Structures are given as C-alpha cells and as structure tokens.
C-alpha cells in the first residue's frame, strides 16, 4: 500500500481514539474544576472530530478506501483506552501524554509525506502538529501547580 496512506491510517486511528477518550472524559470528569474541564474537553473533541473527516478524505483523495471500524482503529492506534473512573488530574495528564504522542506520530507521518513529495498531506499534517502542540500547552498549564 501507498506509504502516505499507511501513515494517514495511523493518524486517523489515533485521532478517532483520542476523540473517543476526550468525550469520555468530558462526560465523566468530576470535582471542583468540573465546568472548565468539561468545556475544555468539548472544544478538544470538536477539533478532533473535524480532523477525523479531513484525514479520511485525504485517504480517499489518494485513491484508497478509508478504514472506518472500531476493529481497524483499535488495531492501528497508539492511544490507550480512557478510564472513566480516573480523577480530573489523571484525565488531564493522560490527555497531555496523548497529545504529545500524537505530535510525535504526526512528525513521522509528515516525513513520510515529504519523502513522497506530497505537499498537500505534509502541510495538513504540519497544521495538525500545531494544534496538538497548542493543546499540549493548555493541558500542561491546566495541571501546573
Ligand atoms: Fe456534552
């Protein structure tokens, strides 16, 4: 299979898994920071939801069918399942870990796209790296003592 498509499939699976985890935490977060965290997690999963569609359609644009089952996503993703019973602090640090991990995975996919000369995919992946870096900063600042 096309190496750019393979790299995009991992990004799609990771984004879907992080979307699901972030919505899980939006639903289940508790404690005195409930309202800001509930709202911040909603903004984050809205962004991830939009990205899912763009990545799926980038794969179609390259002429391949797009993966789209929980089986595909769980086989390919690097993101571990969320824990609905985690504390608010654990949720923030878990999401921070995942956004940093996604930054690294996107960096690898970006190199694959550049090596294939695919500037369209490379530039989109760069823009996603920027979003994950910003989200990482916000989560890091949220958990600062
Ligand atoms: Fe909601």
- CATH fold-level assignment: Ferritin
Q: Order of SSEs, N→C? A: HHHHH
Shape: elongated
User: What is the percentage of strand-forming residues?
Assistant: under 5%
The CATH architecture comes to Up-down Bundle
Question: How far do the termini sit from each other?
Answer: 47 Å
Distinct ligands, ions and cofactors found in the model: fe (ii) ion
CATH-defined superfamily: Ferritin, core subunit, four-helix bundle
Tally of alpha and pi helices:
5
Helices and strands: which structural class?
mainly alpha
The biggest beta sheet is recorded as: none
* Count of separate structural domains: 1
Radius of gyration (CA) equals 15 Å
Classified by CATH, the class is Mainly Alpha
What ranges have pLDDT less than 50 throughout 5 or more consecutive residues? none
Work out the number of β strands.
0
Q: Which percent range fits the helix content?
A: over 70%
């Amino acid at each position: 299979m096309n190496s750019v498509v393979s790299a995009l499939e991992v990004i799609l699976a990771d984004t879907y898994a992080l979307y699901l985890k972030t919505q899980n935490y939006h639903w289940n977060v508790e404690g005195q920071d409930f309202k800001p965290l509930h709202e911040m997690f909603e903004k984050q999963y809205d962004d991830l939801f939009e990205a899912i569609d763009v990545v799926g359609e980038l794969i179609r644009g390259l002429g391949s069918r797009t993966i789209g089952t929980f089986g595909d996503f769980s086989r390919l993703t690097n993101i571990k399942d969320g824990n609905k019973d985690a504390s608010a602090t654990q949720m923030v640090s878990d999401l921070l870990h995942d956004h940093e991990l996604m930054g690294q995975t996107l960096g690898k996919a970006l190199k694959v796209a550049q090596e294939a000369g695919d500037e369209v995919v490379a530039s989109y992946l760069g823009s996603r790296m920027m979003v994950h870096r910003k989200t990482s900063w916000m989560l890091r600042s949220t958990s600062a003592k």
